[in-house]
Amino acid sequence: MAMAIMVPHYTVDDLATFPNDGNRYELLDGVLLVTPAPNAAHQVIATRIRARLVAAVQWTGLAHVVGPGVVVRAPNTQLQAANGATSLSAD
Question: Which of 66, 82, 64, 65 is nearest to 26 (CA)?
Fold first, then answer.
């Protein structure tokens, strides 16, 4: 018989208690996601992708490229948008 693993659940307020150690701490439906900070190569690639998105949608008026930023759906979800790669409809 398999034993269930208990996964702790956190709130957006709990994020303030985690260390400022260079890792990215995010919540998705109360589950903690920890990832390392992006390196320089990642940032260069993300910036190039953002520039392409802007060229493709923002200047045509079809959408807006925004970020970087944080998407919060309190109390159990807080995610960081990746280097400006989030698009919003112009409507």
Answer: 82
